[in-house]
Amino acid sequence: xxxxxxxxxxxxxxxxxxxxxxxxxxxxxxxxxxxxxxxxxxxxxxxxxxxxxxxxxxxxxxxxxxxxxxxxxxxxxxxxxxxxxxxxxxxxxxxxxxxxxxxxxxxxxxxxxxxxxxxxxxxxxxxxxxxxxxxxxxxxxxxxxxxxxxxxxxxxxxxxxxxxxxxxxxxxxxxxxxxxxxxxxxxxxxxxxxxxxxxxxxxxxxxxxxxxxx
Length: 214
Fold this sequence. Notes:
Layout: H1 2-24, E1 26-34, E2 45-50, E3 53-59, E4 65-72, E5 74-81, E6 88-95, E7 100-102, E8 107-108, E9 116-124, E10 135-141, E11 147-154, E12 160-166, E13 170-178, E14 181-189, E15 193-200, E16 202-203, H2 204-213
Parallel strand pairs: 1-7, 1-8, 9-15
Antiparallel strand pairs: 1-4, 2-3, 2-5, 5-6, 9-12, 10-11, 10-13, 13-14, 14-16
């Protein structure tokens, strides 16, 4: 029993120093995975690849930062991916022994529109002219009738606006406002696609008259 214990201790000692020696002969890279707007992307996967073989992977933290260690010196292609985004590759990234190379914020992922609900719309005045700069509010209407604001923006100079959401069936209400006029429209979405709507503003006095008539 004592003999087996000694053998175990010796093997553990050898394994420890072997790992330490390997660590001293390897390097790595660090950086940040972000959107084109500079926002960090959490839980993205960064994989070091050589000759089409995945060597090692790491995940980004809640701010998009990551560190990938334990790589032998050499050149790697870094593949970075995240559900809902198009994958990206950095080619011929050099890893040096005993060094952690800093890629800073070079890893940029763009949204994969094929996995999104995209709502596009235009705002018009009663006479048919486009209304630029209108305030746009979008709310999600739950099955129980409750309403939650999920986004806001301003229409472009040509009266256009866009909202993007992760895939999933839902019902939304979009409200456009400009000066003393506003209007709302509801839209039901299901599969990932581009959904379009047009909103024609109504003067407050006109809406009041319609309510009185009803």
